[in-house]
Amino acid sequence: MRQASHSCLTDRRLSKQFVAFLLAVISLAVINGFTALNAHARVSSTGSPGIQLPERAQFERQRLLFLDAEKAILAKQTRQAQKLMKQLSNYPLLPYLEYLQLSRSIRKTKERDIITYLDTYPNTRLADRLRSAWLKHMASRKQWTNFLRHYTASSSTTLQCHHRTALLAKKRYKEAFQDIQTLWLIGRSQD
Fold first, then answer.
1. In angstroms, rounded to a whole number, what is the distance separating the alpha carbons of residues 73 and 82?
2. pLDDT tens-digit profile of 24-63?
3. Which of 54, 77, 142, 156 could form a disulfide with 58 if both were Cys (CB 3.0 to 4.6 A apart)?
4. How many whole angstroms separate alpha carbon 19 and alpha carbon 23?
5. Could you give the CA distance from residue 165 to residue 145 in angstroms, rounded to a whole number?
């Protein structure tokens, strides 16, 4: 009898929890529905501020311009690429094209152009990749002053080693050897 009563209480608790859960799910669905309607109204209305999406034809035109610009960059047609990229000022993939152009000609790229890109798109994967490539290029040319000025902490052992080499080249021995065991005492081969 006791067991049956305990089972009944458990069933009621589960039922109450299930009803509470069901009400929460329905409430979230209603809230999401109103949010979607509100967002749609903001996008659709021309008088109120909100998200303004380009027309489908404009998206298609931009997509084709993007592909042409990418081909021009890969073919090293810099002027053609620049001309096409100017037409893509609001295109969401423009940072990729800029990255591609800078990284493919990193030996000839001006420092200010790279810094501008890094400042424009901070904390992005492409900015990190560009900085790494640029730092490796500076290390290969032994441009240690510039390297140290633009180096940021990195998980790349190659860049960490270049950083230590740059510090040694500038006779900053104490910094160069600080915590060196984290690079040296590893159970696998390092760069």
1. 9
2. 556 555 455 544 444 444 444 444 455 555 678 888 899 9
3. 54
4. 6
5. 11
